[in-house]
Write a sequence for this structure.
């Protein structure tokens, strides 16, 4: 997937991003959303990226169409959390395992490290998910804890592992 272009996400990407995400909503425990989105119901999510702060949406595009995205949004909605973000990444099923995730996430983390407002990045990974845990650890995230049976989907309780990355390190923060 070295031919993929990584760029900021736009409104025109939303239908493809909804399709990518809905695959995970409908077929996996990886997201705790339980109902598929439409373009209209997912639009408020997209609008968060127009806000100020450390909020990013990057899209991996191949042959003119999105095949994945990585994002950072507020970790929590209280003002004291303004310098902390929650990161996420989703790839089209056919793009998983080809190195694109590491490349895409790497660009997102570079942008966060260059942002003087960003201090910590957090990622919640529904378990089991060895690929996601391995990706986060390769990117420098460290485990900080596990919430036991935090989510309920497909008639099963799922644990969530939380990982943390200091994105201020390269800036002497």
């Amino acid at each position: 997937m070295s031919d993929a272009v990584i760029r900021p996400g736009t409104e025109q990407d939303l239908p493809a991003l909804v399709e990518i995400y809905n695959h995970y909503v409908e077929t996996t425990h990886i997201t705790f959303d339980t109902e598929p989105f439409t373009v209209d119901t997912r639009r408020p999510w997209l609008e968060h990226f127009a806000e100020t702060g450390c909020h990013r949406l990057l899209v991996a595009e191949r042959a003119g169409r999105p095949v994945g995205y990585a994002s950072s949004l507020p970790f929590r909605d209280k003002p004291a959390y303004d310098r902390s973000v929650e990161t996420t990444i989703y790839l089209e099923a056919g793009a998983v395992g080809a190195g694109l995730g590491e490349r895409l996430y790497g660009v997102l983390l570079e942008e966060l490290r260059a942002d003087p407002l960003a201090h910590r990045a957090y990622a919640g990974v529904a378990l089991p998910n060895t690929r996601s845990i391995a990706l986060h650890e390769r990117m420098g995230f460290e485990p900080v804890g596990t919430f036991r049976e935090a989510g309920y989907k497909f008639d099963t309780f799922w644990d969530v592992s939380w990982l943390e990355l200091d994105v201020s390190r390269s800036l002497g923060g």
In short: Strands lie at 5-8, 56-62, 65-74, 84-91, 120-126, 142-153, 156-166. The chain has four helices and seven strands. The chain has a mean pLDDT of 92. Helices lie at 14-27, 39-47, 100-114, 130-138.
